Amino acid sequence: MSNWNRLEKSLFIAFLLWSTAGLIFTVLGVTPDAIARWPAPEALRRFVAFCVGFGDPILILLAFANTHLHAARQWTPSTARRWALWILACSFTVETLGVATGFPFGAYLYTHRFGPWLGLVPATIPLAWYVVVTNALFLVRTVAPHRSRLAEIAWTALLCTFYDLILEPFATQVKLYWIWVGDAVPVQNYIAWFVVSSLLIWAFAPTAATRFPRDARPAAILGATLLIFLAGRWLGGN
């Protein structure tokens, strides 16, 4: 963090604090109904209820901001902006197609629990795609700096697919952010995650190597969110 500017440091600390609070609330199974019964001042109960109700969209926004600042430092601000626009536009298009037709992920519908909507999908969904694909790419480039282009695409896509594998039970059984027709995640979904993320990396990933391989943000962002998913699935209940 020594070479980060003040904005980078502030947003990373905010992400760590917010994700830690989210993990604690998830493990304890804190819900709005439980908060309403707390022997605490009304203002405090309302604040905590807001954090619980909007905690995940805010976490996605913080993760997106940290990811984009990291990308701008690793590449250049203009390169990071182009990459972000491509990922956001393509993921929004694919998700809209998925909701409307069931292709390529399978038949599913989003609920109103994951922030404001943009067309047929929550606006947080393209942001989440950007967070996952970008941080997975940088992790692969850090761990295997001398990989081939094909290997980079394959390993990044595998990491993205693994992330979704851990996410699905939390999002669909604990949070009910989206609902699969038939109440089961189709294998088609994971195949689509691998293919779509592969195509995104192949078509749009800048070829410049990672400039600051010791930057903690990719591992911290993916690790913290995965920990929340696992805790929510196995400890927090529903």
How would you describe this protein?
This protein is mainly α. The protein has eight helices and four strands. The protein has a two-stranded antiparallel sheet. β2 (117-118) and β3 (121-122) form a beta hairpin. The mean pLDDT is 91.
List the helices and strands and how they pair.
Elements: H1 6-28, H2 32-36, H3 42-74, H4 77-101, E1 108-110, E2 117-118, E3 121-122, H5 124-143, H6 149-174, E4 178-180, H7 187-204, H8 217-236
Strand order of the largest sheet: 1-4
Determine the structural class based on helices, strands and strand pairing: mainly alpha
Q: What's the helix-strand series? A: HHHHEEEHHEHH
| Shape assignment | globular
Oligomer: single chain
- How many β-strand runs? 4
Mean of pLDDT: 91
Question: Segments where pLDDT lies below 50 for 5+ residues?
Answer: none
Tally of structural domains: 1
What Rg, in angstroms, do the CA atoms define? 18 Å
Q: Helix fraction?
A: over 70%
Estimated share of beta-strand residues: under 5%
Sheet with the most strands? 2 strands, antiparallel
> Termini distance?
37 Å
